[in-house]
């Protein structure tokens, strides 16, 4: 009986401690309409003519999946939504891709896992630029090492070249990521493998990838190990710069977003099983704080510090929620600059 009492007291103590540690929820400004299957990763396109008409793209990860387009009220924009995709996983966006001598276009790129390829579309007219898709990991010999998951676009500030950095379901301990140079000529857009790099712990998988274009740095989540940091510029070599942050995560390290102000930058990373986000200083990689945005099991996230009209005057943070939707927060609510 005495042992039973001790066990009950211990269980109550643990429960109280768990409640005491729960962070207050920062309530979303907008929750989007739901997708059909399984949301995963967002990307924000800023409309250069009217920022209040910007678009949030989000993947719906299924064999009959889609890239959904949402307005800033969270409503689905059907004529901008790309359907009939084979398990789209992650999506990213870049501005000013040189399509020909006189034309630059904004583009989104996403992985299409079951077709072992990446896709490239112009924004906002949503025209395919990829002849149906660019194959990736074509030299893979082991099961699942040819299945793309994460993707980040990198536009070099030095050369203005556009690259896609792609991760996969599983892979070797070294050269887990492949980097593809996207080019355009009179015959269309082409993809060329230029680099293999990046270590992998082997503990789970690598999905979330984000690039700081100005600094030329790529970050990716080795999910149960650390946040890894490398140069995004191929000419700067493949040596790892840093592996950090593992002690601040409950289990999986997931989506990564980079928020940059004039004087300071932040790395916002999903602490998936804790249903929170960890924020790090972009320059020093020092941990700053943990926040609760109300999302469940967040995979991907994205951020902009640009004002998006009256709805999001301080910028926008978008995070995936495990109820087939995305949460939109005015960036000021995250109190990054306090």
Automatic annotation (TrEMBL):
<dbReference type="InterPro" id="IPR011042">
    <property type="entry name" value="6-blade_b-propeller_TolB-like"/>
</dbReference>
<feature type="domain" description="BPP">
    <location>
        <begin position="16"/>
        <end position="338"/>
    </location>
</feature>
<dbReference type="Pfam" id="PF02333">
    <property type="entry name" value="Phytase"/>
</dbReference>
<dbReference type="InterPro" id="IPR003431">
    <property type="entry name" value="B-propeller_Phytase"/>
</dbReference>
<keyword id="KW-0732">Signal</keyword>
<protein>
    <submittedName>
        <fullName>Phytase</fullName>
    </submittedName>
</protein>
<feature type="signal peptide">
    <location>
        <begin position="1"/>
        <end position="20"/>
    </location>
</feature>
């Amino acid at each position: 009986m005495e042992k039973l009492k001790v066990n009950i007291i211990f269980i109550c103590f643990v429960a109280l401690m768990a409640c005491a540690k729960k962070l207050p929820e920062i309530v979303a400004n907008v929750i989007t309409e739901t997708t059909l299957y399984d949301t995963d990763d967002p990307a924000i396109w800023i409309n250069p003519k009217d920022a209040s008409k910007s678009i949030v793209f989000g993947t719906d990860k299924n064999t009959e999946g889609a890239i959904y387009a949402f307005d800033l009220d969270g409503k689905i924009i059907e004529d901008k939504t790309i359907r009939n995709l084979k398990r789209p996983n992650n999506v990213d966006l870049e501005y000013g891709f040189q399509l020909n001598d006189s034309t630059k276009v904004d583009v989104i790129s996403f992985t299409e896992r079951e077709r072992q390829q990446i896709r490239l579309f112009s924004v906002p007219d949503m025209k395919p630029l990829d002849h149906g898709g660019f194959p990736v990991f074509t030299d893979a010999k082991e099961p699942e090492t040819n299945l793309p998951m994460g993707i980040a676009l990198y536009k070099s500030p030095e050369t203005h070249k556009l690259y896609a950095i792609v991760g996969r379901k599983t892979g070797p301990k070294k050269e887990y990521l492949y980097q593809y140079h996207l080019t355009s000529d009179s015959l269309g857009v082409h993809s060329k493998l230029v680099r293999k790099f990046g270590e992998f712990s082997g503990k789970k998988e690598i999905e979330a990838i984000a690039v700081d274009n100005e600094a030329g740095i790529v970050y990716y989540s080795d999910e149960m190990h650390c946040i890894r940091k490398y140069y995004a510029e191929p000419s700067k070599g493949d040596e790892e710069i840093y592996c950090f942050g593992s002690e601040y995560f409950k289990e999986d390290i997931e989506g990564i977003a980079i928020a940059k102000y004039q004087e300071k930058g932040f790395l916002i990373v999903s602490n998936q099983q804790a249903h929170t986000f960890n924020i790090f200083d972009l320059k020093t990689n020092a941990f700053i704080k943990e926040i609760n945005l109300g999302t469940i099991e967040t995979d991907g996230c994205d951020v902009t510090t640009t004002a998006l009209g009256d709805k999001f005057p301080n910028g926008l943070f978008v995070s995936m929620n495990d109820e087939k939707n995305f949460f939109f927060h005015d960036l000021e609510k995250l109190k990054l600059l306090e």
